[in-house]
Amino acid sequence: MSRLQIHDVSVRYPGMNGGETVTALSDINFTIEPGEFVVALGASGCGKTTLLNLMAGFIQPSDGYLTLGQSGIAGLPRVACGLDLDDQITGPGKDRGVVFQKHALLPWLNVLDNTAFGLKLQGFSLKERNERAAEFLQLVGLQDFHKHPVYQLSGGMQQRVGIARALTNDPQMLLLDEPLGALDALTREVLQELLLDVWKQTQKMMFFITHSVEEALFMASRLIIMSPRPGRITHEFSLNFNQIFLECRDARKVKSLPEFIAMREQVLSIIHGDEAEGGLH
Ligand SMILES: Nc1ncnc2c1ncn2[C@@H]1O[C@H](COP(=O)(O)OP(=O)(O)OP(=O)(O)O)[C@@H](O)[C@H]1O
C-alpha cells in the first residue's frame, strides 16, 4: 500500500471576467497514510473540492506536485527533475475512485450494469465484470437489486451503487466529495455506518469532504480543518470515534459521548471563527 503525498501545493484560478486571481489553496503539505480515513471540513470556499480534484488528477496545481506511492498524480511535469518516480504520467487513474454528491449513474442501465460500467470500458469480459460488480454490490448491501433500474432506487440506494462502482477498480483510495450531503438525516446515518464498514473491510485510504461537524468527527481517523482566503489546512486532529463505533455498533452512543460533544464544540468554534472572518460565501 502507498501513501498519498502533497508537496508544497498551491492552486490559483484566474479571476472571473478579468477580476482578481483566486488563490484557492496555498502551500499545502500533507500526507495520507495507508488505511487512514481523512475528513476535510471547513467554511465554504476554503478549497476542499479543489484539494480533492487535485488528488483525483482532475486539475493541476499552480505550484507543487502530488504523488501516490511512486506515481505522479498532478503537477509533476514542472518539477519532475531529480525525482525517482516509476511513473510520471499525471492525471486521473484507476488507483483513485471518486464518489460525488450527485452519483451520475446511467438511468438506462440497471444496478449491476451501472456498477460494472467502468470495467466494460476497460475491456473486461462480461463474466469478470459481473463477478466483480456483484462482489461490491454485496459489500454495500445491494445483492438483491442487480436487475433493478437505478431510477427506481432511493437516493441512499443510488449512492450505494456509486460507492460500489468506485470500488470495482480496486482503487488504493476513495475520494468522496460530500457523498451524503443530499440524503435525508436517517439515510445519511445508515450510509455513514456503511462507509465505515467498507473502510474496515477494504482498508482503503479515504478522503471525505463534509459540511457536517458531527459526521466529520464520527467518520475521521484524522480530521483536517481548512480555512479560506487563501485555502490552508489550519488544524489537524487524530480521532478514534470511528473505531469506537466499529467495536460497539451504537452510533447514537458514540455521538453522545462527552468527548465527542466537547470535540464538536471545539471544532464548531474554529469553523464559526473562520466564517465570521468572511469565509462564508
Ligand atoms: N474553476 C474555478 N474558477 C475560478 N474560481 C474557482 C474555481 N473553482 C473554485 N474556485 C474558487 O476557489 C475557491 C475554493 O473553491 P472550492 O470549491 O475548492 O471550495 P470548497 O471548500 O469545496 O467550497 P464548498 O464547501 O462551498 O463546496 C472558492 O473561492 C471558489 O470560488
SSE order and pairing:
Elements: E1 4-13, E2 22-32, E3 37-42, H1 48-56, E4 63-68, E5 71-74, H2 76-79, E6 96-99, H3 111-121, H4 126-139, H5 155-167, E7 173-177, H6 185-202, E8 205-209, H7 213-219, E9 222-227, E10 232-238, H8 241-248, H9 251-255, H10 258-279
Parallel strand pairs: 3-8, 3-9, 6-7, 7-8
Antiparallel strand pairs: 1-2, 1-4, 4-5, 9-10
The protein binds adenosine-5'-triphosphate.
Adenosine-5'-triphosphate is lined by residues 13, 22, 24, 42, 44-50, 231.
GO molecular function: ATP binding; ATP hydrolysis activity
Domain ABC transporter: 4-253
Pfam families: ABC_tran
Q: Which architecture name of the largest domain does CATH use?
A: 3-Layer(aba) Sandwich
Task: Give the ordered list of helices and strands.
Answer: EEEHEEHEHHHEHEHEEHHH
Determine the mean pLDDT. 90
Helical residue percent band: 25-40%
From the N-terminal CA to the C-terminal CA, the straight-line distance is 38 Å
Q: Return Rg in Å.
A: 19 Å
Strand order, sheet with most strands: 6-7-8-3-9-10
Query: What small molecules accompany the polymer chains?
Result: adenosine-5'-triphosphate
User: Tell me, what is the CATH class of the largest domain?
Assistant: Alpha Beta
| Biggest sheet details | 6 strands, mixed
Specify the oligomeric state: single chain
> How many strand segments?
10
Low-confidence stretches are none
- Briefly note the CATH topology name of the largest domain: Rossmann fold
Strand fraction equals: 15-25%
